[in-house]
Amino acid sequence: MRVLLTLFFILGCFSLSMAQTTAPTYSNEFLSIGVGARSFAMGNASVASQSNVEAAYWNPASLVQIDKKYDVAAMHAEYFGGLSAYDYAGLSVKLNKESAIAFSLIRFGVDDIPNTLELIDKEGNLRYDRITTFTSADYALLISYARKTGIKGLNVGGNVKLIYRHTGDFASAYGFGIDLAATYSTSSWKFGALLRDATSTFNSWVFKTDQLEEVFAVTGNEIPENSTELTLPKLILGVSREFQLSDKFALLAEFDADFTFDGKRNVLVKGDPVSIDPHMGIEASFKKFIFLRAGVNNFQEETDFDNSKSWTFQPNLGLGINYKNFRLDYALTDVGDQSIARYSNVFSLAYSFD
């Protein structure tokens, strides 16, 4: 146990030091979207309360709380009016009473993008028959492990992340990163902590510029060079509590806060280098069979055309049904179009078994 705590401390200090290096403020953002309609409905407030296969993403330390030996889940969502697709599939395996592993696959992509590099031939003629299509997609494989500690209620875990990103035949990148996580629970309270990209996640980009050099030269664009991209650490803390209202009704509430260390961001608490992005959600249940959920997140300050400023937020609603080890969840994000984000319908299906 002392070795684990020492490792957490060393990696935390390393993460804060890495945060002072020069790196893009936003990198690998497709891994910040989230997984599971339950979490979307609750404003992505799931670091403390999530306790199924989707916990591999939100807090892998919670995997040991899964009752069944196997838990599988899948999710599909579309963004930007259906132009892009976001998909997730996960599998968790309970090794024994003390430990569990999980595998998660995430894809965010835009398909059938027109490639007009060859639209105009050497004689200056438009050749629509020469238009082809390509795909720009990001993939991530999460390999998760969780284990109970000698302290009652305290679990630890982590993710190893393998990333592949590509834009047609023009560019591709391979990445690697590590997440560290812990949970602590009492009879009613649950606390969660996730240090995402604990050692910073590295993406190594390779550009194939043979097809681009002539077009870039004509248009005056700079030809990209092979490079390494860093995703700096993010600390997410969460606390949740369940209230048993009666034999049939229960209420769960969670509050999370994301701490970023890469400079001032457009969030509720802006700072340099530390910014804090809070989000919260509630879940009401009847006999653990039907669940009604609501959450709010994505607080941002917008500037209007007359330079006036106002705050926006993203409200979400959702519904869940648990029946004979099956879980069907639905979320409607950005209800009422209160933020600059477009609303999305998110569905996820899960099944647990021995």
Automatic annotation (TrEMBL):
Name this protein carries in UniProt: PorV/PorQ family protein
InterPro entries named among the record's database cross-references: PorV (IPR045741)
UniProt keyword terms in alphabetical order: Signal
NCBIfam families: PorV_fam (NF033709)
Signal sequence extent: 1-19
Start and end residues of each Type IX secretion system protein PorV domain: 23-188
Superkingdom assignment: Bacteria
